Amino acid sequence: MNTTNALVARLQKLESAVVADVMDTMGLEHQVPAPGLLPVRRHSTMAGPVICAAGSDTVSEGLPTFALDDAIYPGGILVIDTDQCSGGAIIGDNMVTSMVNRGAAGFIVDGGIRDAAEFEQLEQPVFYRYTSPLNAHKYWRLTAVEQPITLPGVRGPVNINPGDLLLADADGIVVLPIAHAAQIIADAEIHLATENSIKQGLVAGGDRKTVTQAAGRLKHVQRLG
Q1: Distance CA 212, CA 18 (A)
Q2: In-domain check, residue 41
Q3: Is the pLDDT of residue 107 over 80?
């Protein structure tokens, strides 16, 4: 198992809220995309390296959308920056089926999708901003694949590079810069254990302030730089 696969296997056992706490404490405050991205299937979870794609409806020429299929590798999560396109669906069932066949672990589209009913039956999660029966490709053009992208975020733009790690679950999406991913995951594993111990103390009838202070919540996390 290579380093990335090993990190993904550990990331799959964590929660987005735990990872977000750690990154926030480290000073990585711009790693949570805007809450408008929702899963087709409620309580979907996925973790893996990001495959970046971008496009716009303000350009007249672009790449063929088949370039998306060519960029897919097993375990990768396709994230599409649509440049806030609102003109229709960027992906549909046939595109997703092709990419799943190539090993895609999931999809995040900062824009529209169609064939949502089919995606409800899909094992690989699909996150999206809206649904539309219209195909956006009459106006929207794919402009880049496996180049850095930027998505709107909760506290500001989220810059995403190819190969960054991503975790999505019922609480939302977090993006782990690959340069810090190993430390984030290690700290998040400790933080998850701490959170579980706090919960056990509360279930046993403990006072929340007392239990939390005794646990030393996030004391192990060092701020970057």
Answers
A1: 15
A2: yes
A3: yes
